[in-house]
Amino acid sequence: MRKIGVFLLIFSLAMMNANSGFAQSDTSFYKTAKNAVKAGDNDYAFMCFRSIVESTKKSKYYKEALFATGEYYYSLGDYRSAEEAFSNFIDSYAQDQALPFAVIYLLKISNQMYISKTQEDLRKQIITFKQLSLLFREFKECSYISPMNLHYKAIYFIDCIEIYINEGLFEKIYF
Amino acid sequence: MKKSISKLILLFFIFSAVGLILFFASVGFKALLLENKVKIAEQLSAYLNHETTIDSIIYIPPNVLILNNISVSYSEDNEKKGSPLFVKSIRLKFSLSQLLEKKNIVVNTAVFVNPRIDYNKHQIFFKENIEGIIKAIKFLARGRPLKLVFEQAECIFGRKGSSGKMLLGDAIFTIDLESNIESTGRISYSKFKETDLKRKVEKNLLDPGFFYVFKGALVPGGLSIKSVEFNSAYIQAALKGEIIKSVLKLKGFSTLKNFYGRSLMGVSNKVKRVLEKIKNFLRYGRLPQKTGILAGGINLLDINCLIKFDSKHILVQSVEFYLNNIPVRFQGEAAFGDKILTKIKLLTFPDQNEEKRALNPQRLDIVLKSSTAKGKTSGESDIVFLDTAHQGTSLLQVKTSFSNLSAAVFPDTRLKILIEKIAVQYRRNLKVFNFMLSDLASIFNFMDKGVKFVKFGSRLYDGTLNGYIAADIEQLPPKIICNLKVAKVSAWQLDSLLLSLFGVYRRLPTKLQGRIDGQFTCDLDYVNHPVPRLKGQATIEDGYLDNVKFFVWLGEFFGLPDLSRVNFSELSVQFELTPEASLLKNIKLKAEKVMLEGNFLLNSNEFVTSNISIVLAREYLKTSGKFNMLFALMDKKTQYLNFDFQLSGIYKTLNFKWQKSAFKQRLRKILPGFIERGLERKVERAIQSISTPNK
Question: Taking the model in full, what pTM does it have?
Fold first, then answer.
């Protein structure tokens, strides 16, 4: 069934390129992708998100699609492609709520690829994303639900940051 | 047979007669020379104005005379006894035709073997007698072409105890009938050590010295320099010009060869960094276009100099050149009257318009002035340049003035320097730091081969400054240890400097602006090895902080506006600054209104770790309109209220946390959420305004 889905998608993409009259809108790609995520078919969802990314930057779904492609590549272990996607994301959306999570992916990737210089810059980027004034609270948190339906949470303490994905600790940064 | 025998006898007699004539002529000439040895010596003495002796004169037929061990006796005082000029031998080749026709000894070649000049010991002799030496040489030539050869010449120009520095050289001069002069030769530098018996020269085999070729001509009023070229392993230069009526004009170029390509293996990182800075400063915007100029060297191109001088005055009207691609103008003046006056001005990019020059990172202005009379020197310097290493471009100016500098050497060779007053002004853009020293006494011990040591003491405003600097120069860069002790200085004299120190090396200084006073005492140690480290402690007693921004903000936050001025009994801090981190620890402020304790660590990666505790007295808090309503939250027995804060993160976006306390818990219970968030935003803004550095 999954193979048939992939075949259909490739077929529909080929048709779109052959004749624009058959082209799906980015909204419909996005809806298809979200449905695929709900159905647990991340491969199919990725293809839709990638179509949005490759079609136009002006799409209102571009930001989420870009993040989703990064997540997908990372889950497959394709760190080069994931790094490209997340780098594009942080260059384009420096103030977005998802930025700390894109940066944490890049930090993990640079850790895997032993790029120590980048790690220091990324650490600074994630730490300076939120300036804290903890008068009465012990921490502040921000969260983000990605198009791939992953629940991200960053907890900012006075001297460390904890990043969770689906309630599981993904990374902890001390400073 | 008989005929041939008689011919042989005739030839024998002829040869015998000629031999006898030559023998008697030689003996007679020698006897004549021996008789005239004293006369020659007297004549030389007349030219040099001092007694000159000649050990012996040897005649080698047909036309060579050798004068052995010529020595000039001269004594300025008992300590400077000795010969300023000694020549092991002078070989004179004279013209036979002139001797036979005109009965004149006209020398056409003079070879000076191992002439030794002790210029260091007898400078006055050479200043007074240089004309006599030239006249004596002219007398030898008597207007005819002359070739002068100097072999293994030695000139001592520096001496300390039994060792010193000297120049060694070989040179050939030819002067023809049209007064053209040509000379070639080699000059090298060496050190020597003297024992009672002999002088031992430490020959530098790696540096053969430099070779030169000179072509010029004597012209009315001076010397025309058609060309002079220098060449060595490191330097190449070519110049031409003239010295006429005390005016020197020169044009040409000079190159320090292969400066950029020279190996830096074995050189420490610090030296490498210095060399890199020099290289960057002198970098080429484009390669030089002139033929023969080395792209990998330091080049002085288009040298154009005009110098006027007489016995009491030197005026460097202008010396202009391109130092690689940087145009440089040097001007100066020195007058040698009752006072020795000097003035030097050096500008890079002298003709660039002011707007462009103000932004030119290679702009450098140096002005130095000094006046020396009766062994005391006063002067001032002004150096202006741009700093592009830090954020943005800053204009830096260092002005120094000093008065009545005098120096004396102890019998054990230590050097003592006294300065009545030194004022230093350091300006970075509009920010000015001043400090002034008076009655500075310093003792330099430079004779120790390994460690050079300077000890000094001075008045610093109304307090004192004492310290020492020791440098182990056996290593490169030298290992330096420095200690400074400042005692009982009125802090307001140094407030800009002190607030800068509390601001951790200019990272936070502009936000600590204000006034500070009290009795300042400081003890600091500096070492540059294995890493540079400045460590010490500073204390200010019985003073005040006036309008210091942190306390102004604190006053506004707590509703205590008079916190803008804090009279304190003690403000102290221990500090340690290294390339890795700047640490202020045990920060203590003791005052009636407020007490503060804390630590502050700023790492080189810009991360801050800090804990600060502020204690406010209950009675003082009563004066706060904001706190009146909160007194119910305080335990009635509590006389002081503690506020403990933690700061962390990157210093530009510091995180702030109010640590747990009973008061905080009670306060939180009664505060509505929107007030809590409002307060947090207020603190956030305040932290931003304190931690973001001003440009």
Answer: 0.61
Residue A163 to residue A149: CA distance in whole angstroms: 16
Residue B663 lies in a domain: yes
Report pLDDT digits (tens) over B588-600: 999 988 899 999 8
Cβ-defined contact of B671 to A124 (cutoff 8 Å): no
Residue B329 near residue B319 (C-beta atoms within 8 A)? yes
A174 at B interface, C-beta within 8 A: no
CA proximity to A38, closest of A166, A151, A167, A149: A149
Confidence (pLDDT) at B258: 61
Instruction: Give the list of residues 6+ apart from residue B214 with CB closer than 8 angstroms, or none.
Output: B181, B182, B183, B184, B225, B227, B228, B229
Question: Which of A127, A131, A158 has the CB atom closest to B684's CB atom?
Answer: A131
Domain contains B81: no
Which residue among A120, A134, A158 places its CB closest to the CB of B605?
A: A120
Q: Using a CB–CB cutoff of 8 Å, tell me whether B603 touches chain A.
A: no
Number of domains in chain B: 1
pLDDT digits (tens, 9 = 90+) for B244-259: 888 999 998 887 776 5
Alpha-carbon Rg for chain A in angstroms: 18
**Is residue B534, in this structure, part of any structural domain at all?**
yes
Domain extent, residue B685, equals 489-695
Instruction: Give the residue from chain A lying closest to B665, CA to CA.
Output: A136
In a domain, B618, yes or no: yes
**Cβ-based contacts of A132 with chain B (< 8 Å):** 649, 655-657
Q: Return the bridge partners of B201, or none.
A: B192
Residues 329-358 of B with CB under 8 A from A: none
